Amino acid sequence: MNVEKKYIENGVLVFSTGLENNLRNIRAKFTKIFDNSARMNGLDPIKNDKDVAKFSKTNHELWVSSYDQLRFLPEVLAISNEQIILKNIKKCGIKFPVVDEIVLRGDMPYDDQWRSETHQDSDYFQGSMNSLIVWIPFQDIDSQIGPLDVVKGSHKNGSINDQGKSINDSEFTSITMKLGEALVFSQFLVHRSGKNRSDDIRFSLQLRINDLEDDEWAKRKFFFPKRKFVNSPRIDFPTYFPF
Ligand SMILES: O=C(O)CCC(=O)C(=O)O
After folding, report:
1. 29 CA to centre of ligand 1 in angstroms
2. Does residue 226 surpass a pLDDT of 80?
């Protein structure tokens, strides 16, 4: 298989998806989700990022409940099946992709508590050796809104555990991006979140991809750390057919 040289060298690859309009529409829908939830709970309408950020402070629990639904929009789930995404993850060595997890982040302006500090994703995946992440922003990513910071070439050392914490700031490259671009990075790449110092929310999608053709992973019986899930809580709620 011909794996893209740049990806092998850097552990990271940026490509254009042509999905700008789709991503713009999805981002507008995020605001609508918060707006619906606010209005259906007797609160003021939510019209823009500023309102969403305020909502996160004034009604945090309700805000989280909406936030948790963003990634389940059919349009978001469908992104993982876009031909342009499949073509580019193939270029990065994935032969038989499965989506291990879909994460949707909404980093509020100046809200640093949810930033991911320096880490590698391999420790959480434990899947195929060629596992990778497709990172897709829902707006431009400039230095103000907080690019993803990566240490190019760091993937070549495999899992480095605690050594990562001693990596110097000067070794990181901040990846600025335009709406419509996607970033692929190896699960072994050392990276961290940038800080959002803009007035806008930094919405981004992370598709975590494993490869069913990896025989090493197959021999580990497609190890899947999240298999051991907890019993989901049960609550009392009204039960009626709504139509
Ligand atoms: O989007 C970010 O700021 C961090 C994402 C990240 O660390 C990850 O996907 O592993």
Report:
1. 22
2. no
